[in-house]
Amino acid sequence: MSARAPQGWHGWDEYAPFYDWENAQTLGRRDVPFWTRVAREARGPALELGCGTGRIALPLARAGISLVGIDRSEAMLAHAIRRAERWRKAQPRRKRRLGLVRGDIRCLPFDSAHFNLVMAPYGVLQSLLRDRDVKATLDSVSRVLKPGGTFGLDLVPDVPHWKEYTDRIQMRGKAAGGAHLTLVESVRQDRRRRLTIFEQEYRVRRGGETTCHPFTLTFRTLPISGMVRRLERAGFAIRSILGDYRGSPWDDRADVWIILAEKV
User: Fold this and answer.
1) Which of 57, 26, 27, 30 is nearest to 247 (CA)?
2) Domain segments of the chain: what residues?
3) Which of 82, 86, 176, 211 is least surrounded, with the fewest CB atoms within 10 Å of its CB?
4) Is domain 12-157+222-263 classified as CATH 3.10.350.10?
5) What's the CA gap between 30 and 35, in Å, rounded?
């Protein structure tokens, strides 16, 4: 990836084989129950932006929510499709409630006014590194939402506060098939462009052989005030701003920044 012109979708195909393993090693953000409640209150079809391997989409579908997930990464989406097929085989009589689509969130391939809810969980919009990409995405979300529909998003506030370091072992452990994984990570901050660059390498050891899988993920800092202005320009009214998944009020020291907005 070019250091001069990073794109937020770069690196995710290479990350795909390790994403679920990494999330299983951490406590996670405990966001699935929150998004389940939001989707149930929306009472209609939902769309998840950046559904990845189905970490949120699958639990919501199991909870009876009709949902479509969209992701640009073919490799991430392939994991979600495999997981969805296993679920469908285990529950053959259950009504099909989950669709998975490969596409670009800046130009959503759905009919206008189709969804009651659009979700952008876990900092998905922070992979949009240019203002025009954020604007295109918000405009596209506004188009596919029904009037009065909900757009919910969360932002990861601590990304710009990560200290820079080089070749730090962040995680290690056993994976399926007897492999041993080690995550080696470097972090760089581009303060001028408000970008945080994670240069990661998974080292996979099987027996006496080790293979290395490097990739880079880039995220942008999106302050609450700026996001609120962007949402209002795209035709949304802010319903609430929360500081955690239990519904506590927001402040700039909160662990997560959540915005729930309504399509005007």
Assistant:
1) 30
2) 12-157+222-263, 159-219
3) 176
4) no
5) 10
